[in-house]
Write the structure tokens for this entry.
Amino acid sequence: MTQHSIHVEQDSAQTQMPIPALEVGRLLISCPDAPGIVAAVAQFLYSQGANILQSDQHSTDNGRGRFYMRVEFQAEELSQRFATLQDTFVPVAQRFDMEWKMTLAGIKKRFAVFVSKEDHCLRELLWAWQTGDLWGQPVMVLSNHPDAKELVEPLGIPFHHIPVTSDTKPEAEDRQLRLLENQVDFLILARYMQIVTPWFLSHYPLQVINIHHSFLPAFIGRNPYARAYDRGVKLIGATAHYVTPQLDEGPIIEQDVHRVDHRYGVEDLKRLGRQIERTVLVRAVRWHLEDRILVHGNKTIVFPS
Amino acid sequence: MTQHSIHVEQDSAQTQMPIPALEVGRLLISCPDAPGIVAAVAQFLYSQGANILQSDQHSTDNGRGRFYMRVEFQAEELSQRFATLQDTFVPVAQRFDMEWKMTLAGIKKRFAVFVSKEDHCLRELLWAWQTGDLWGQPVMVLSNHPDAKELVEPLGIPFHHIPVTSDTKPEAEDRQLRLLENQVDFLILARYMQIVTPWFLSHYPLQVINIHHSFLPAFIGRNPYARAYDRGVKLIGATAHYVTPQLDEGPIIEQDVHRVDHRYGVEDLKRLGRQIERTVLVRAVRWHLEDRILVHGNKTIVFPS
Amino acid sequence: MTQHSIHVEQDSAQTQMPIPALEVGRLLISCPDAPGIVAAVAQFLYSQGANILQSDQHSTDNGRGRFYMRVEFQAEELSQRFATLQDTFVPVAQRFDMEWKMTLAGIKKRFAVFVSKEDHCLRELLWAWQTGDLWGQPVMVLSNHPDAKELVEPLGIPFHHIPVTSDTKPEAEDRQLRLLENQVDFLILARYMQIVTPWFLSHYPLQVINIHHSFLPAFIGRNPYARAYDRGVKLIGATAHYVTPQLDEGPIIEQDVHRVDHRYGVEDLKRLGRQIERTVLVRAVRWHLEDRILVHGNKTIVFPS
Amino acid sequence: MTQHSIHVEQDSAQTQMPIPALEVGRLLISCPDAPGIVAAVAQFLYSQGANILQSDQHSTDNGRGRFYMRVEFQAEELSQRFATLQDTFVPVAQRFDMEWKMTLAGIKKRFAVFVSKEDHCLRELLWAWQTGDLWGQPVMVLSNHPDAKELVEPLGIPFHHIPVTSDTKPEAEDRQLRLLENQVDFLILARYMQIVTPWFLSHYPLQVINIHHSFLPAFIGRNPYARAYDRGVKLIGATAHYVTPQLDEGPIIEQDVHRVDHRYGVEDLKRLGRQIERTVLVRAVRWHLEDRILVHGNKTIVFPS
């Protein structure tokens, strides 16, 4: 509770950033577009004594496609009556054939971080968590190398070294899944240099966030920075996305780039790439933690702050 | 009508960009935040047979401040029953103490462009208008120099040369106001190098858009590019804003920057500055034309596309 | 000569932007790296009474690879003794096995623009030429469509409509080449939607500049904007490059991007894409006109201002 | 030596990033522009058996102003004969009235970090130092608060807590200067919230790097983020600069910005601001460590990689 109080104090009344308090809830909706959805949702919240703090919505195909909505609301004693509130919403959801979820902002999402040897993304995540920039709970770090152990354990976060070879991948993934079971809400691949199987992913659909370098144009395969250097790209960047069985082709959450020129050697490009990866990944994870991302087909709808 | 049909065809069904057709309307609202606003607005539109295409809202102070909303909706024969629709909304508006306006997307806003000698912003505006990127109607160009006449008149737009000196400014502004009266909805200062008086502005409150260069830090006064060069700034930019009696301190609509280094001379900085001004101004004007900007105190809330 | 004088006046003494006057020359060098190159070049220019205005160089592989240099220098009556100066440089060049060229900044490069239906890049080029931002001479516009004729001819630039089908491409390219012969120094493909054959390109090696959209990741093939929309990219951009027989894989000259989100429909992405293409292409062409680009393998070394 | 070997290995032959080895030297020159400078410098290095790895130069006023040059060169046993090499250069320097310095890339610059309560910039500096991204040596951290002690001391870096009030500032600065004497080459103000006196600065002219937030426009004085929020800025950024007695008006080394909109509350702006400050400061410090910055009046000439 102590940390929670501190966090509330930190978010002054002047910010729109919702106070992640027990009394704030979020409602996420996806359904076929139709007249009356917003009216029904707003009427439901009003009738339940909930005040809308922020509401974002998006319609595809000019109102003839699918409708997406994220509402952040405030209500007294929300946590006590949360189950009831959800039950009460069921008829509204059924009327419009909604996929939906309701969350309590005060409950931290739990996540595991997968890492290999390069630890810059892991370090940035831990830092953002320590400073309160990420309102979530890292519950374990898994790695196919032992290197990150000394970084992670002093922070009180369990570290599991699970080597992976092509032969041992099935057992390794099985061991990972048993460790994770009921312990985490989502996973972060923070420069984890192993391909995760569709079977593994099927346990966490659209709940695995990955970060990778991005260039204009793309350089698929080995040594992308050396090839970007050889081609003389003028921009390098990074992409955070949800992992699907198509690997790097899942829905994009966030991207950023930085200018470079011929003076940047391969090592310079890599150093800059690490910097962009850190920033982009933490931004994506924060949006995920705050339920700001909805997925439509292979694209995301992000309502950022 | 021909141009209108073309424009509709251009906006394919895949875009969210609202079809600026006669049957699309926009409702803009600003009021003290309170429970039930969204429900009431949504219910009103639903009861009138209007389908919400896009809805954006913003609350200040976590729901304890002011509430802003922009709704784009579609309804049959909207233009015929537009007056009735507005009348019907009055009780809803009164209940929540709303400032509001309703517009028809199919009706082009009329504007005048003020320009001095540098014509790059004027040219860009005319270009964007010709290609349909700006859905509005330039009804006249006013200048304190004769230079732009040849550019403007062949396009069928009236050009008025009104010289301005410190002595003649009152008469000049008077003449400008008489030319503009009932002819325009808003004004664009496209590198118009004359200070506009508060008296003039009082006729077009928050309806005058200006563009000016921006630096980190600011260089107020004469020869800003030379001084930015002397200081060795690494970024130069431009700001589009609404003009208030405090001149360049009105609500910011849009800003952008570009990287520079010591190799950029004063003329290089100016050339780049012109490029950024063109882009930023047209973006701001487009948002204004599409009713995407709300003003809260001295800041804007922009719901862009 | 009049225009020339104006141009000189425009470039004030405070800028590094070289005065494109008859007395300014540029020397471009590429050779195996070795000790003494810079000393030899600097000594040569000094001995010829030439003052170095700007000098940029680049070495690959930490001095064990290839050496690139661009020197801008000023000398009296340079144009009269230009042939002699080049002859005098030959021994220096031979000593270091240089590829090199010397140009007079005051002589405008001549170029042809190829365009199809979309004319935004052509318009921007013509605009930049008219305002003096591009110090070059457009000598003709070639198109497989008649649309741009009205835009081009009033400016006194010849327009040639040469339709192209898969059957007629050989004759069309033959006709293009005959029109261009001895008339132009380089070509610009300004949204020219025809594939240019290796045979055609062999007449203008590394002298054809193309512009195309760029995304993270790339979307190769048809309807790239629709596919970028479907994938939910967060950045769209454009790349200007030299055309090689590998088409879009030639050396990159310049790139830029702009942020987008789910609210941008396909038409919005296209509009923004056009804006970026215009800016990026003109920047690349300016650098080419000012001899600021050297090519190393499949990459460019750009010394911009 | 071990760390050095590792560092060399890290910089592969493909990069231009100079190997910071004992045999690499850097020569920085500033002098009135004149014919023959480059020839003389290049001839000098050639005659000394030094191979130029990278050379950058800049002339102001089209060759009629001041000339700046940075040369990175490689020579055998450079450290042993470094004093002799400098002596040999004196006549060349005198001939052109040069201000100059020669450095050995293999010798790490020593620096102290000043910090107050906010530690994000300090953390980023320490991180970049640990990963080898900053080739320098932090020799102490000074703070007017005790907070950073636990962060700094476990890394083997001395931490000194020196409280400062307006009454005790003279003694505090005196104590700081005695601690620093002969220990450091330059200072970094990493969110140090005390004004440093001109007297203190006079001991480290152009050797104190500061970081501060930047906005378009600037918000001078208290609570800049709250005021930027109230004004609705669309870009926030940070500036790293050398500190002069005019405080935040010293020569700018690096700047960057990030887009924001009305959804960003004051705390969101601050969080993003911290992110930009970290990145910009480390970039500036790296350039300083690698002798990539020359100062001309109140502006910097940066030759980055």
About this structure: Residues 1-15 of chain A have pLDDT under 50 and may be disordered. The first helix of chain A runs from residue 2 to 10. Chain A has two domains: 2-104, 109-302. The interface with chain C takes residues 58, 214-218, 229-235, 237, 239, 248-249, 251-252, 254-257, 261-263, 296-302 of chain A (CB under 8 Å).
